[in-house]
Amino acid sequence: MGSGYTVLTVYNMLGQEMATLLNTELRSGTYEVTFDAADLPSGIYIYQIQSGGYTAVKKMLLLK
Fold first, then answer.
1. CATH number at residue 23
2. By residue range, what is the domain housing residue 17?
3. 12-22: burial string, b at 16+ Cβ within 10 Å, e else
4. Which of 6, 27, 61, 62 is most buried when burial is the number of CB atoms within 10 A of its CB?
5. What whole-number distance in Å separates Cα of residue 8 and Cα of residue 22?
């Protein structure tokens, strides 16, 4: 099984880092991460996940 250093970061629409949810070495597999957004206002946020050579950037909508 493979492993890779994994970082999961949340940004606001201005590109400011709001939270780092994951910053660790992980083995291949499926994981869940809890995001406590109690201190953030409703709106659109960007999250980026990087692991090994893989990078993905997606939008998410936070509604309160």
1. 2.60.40
2. 3-62
3. eeeeeebeeee
4. 6
5. 5
34, 51, 16, 32 alpha-carbon torsion, rounded to 10°: -10
Residue 36 CB coordination number (10 Å): 8
- pLDDT value at position 2? 66
The predicted-structure confidence for 10-31, as pLDDT tens digits, reads as follows 999 999 999 999 999 999 899 9
Residues for the chain: how many in total? 64
Strands (E), the chain: 3-11, 17-27, 43-51, 54-62
Alpha-carbon gap, residue 61 to 47, rounded angstroms: 11
Q: Is 54 exposed, middle or buried (0-12, 13-18, 19+ CB in 10 A)?
A: exposed
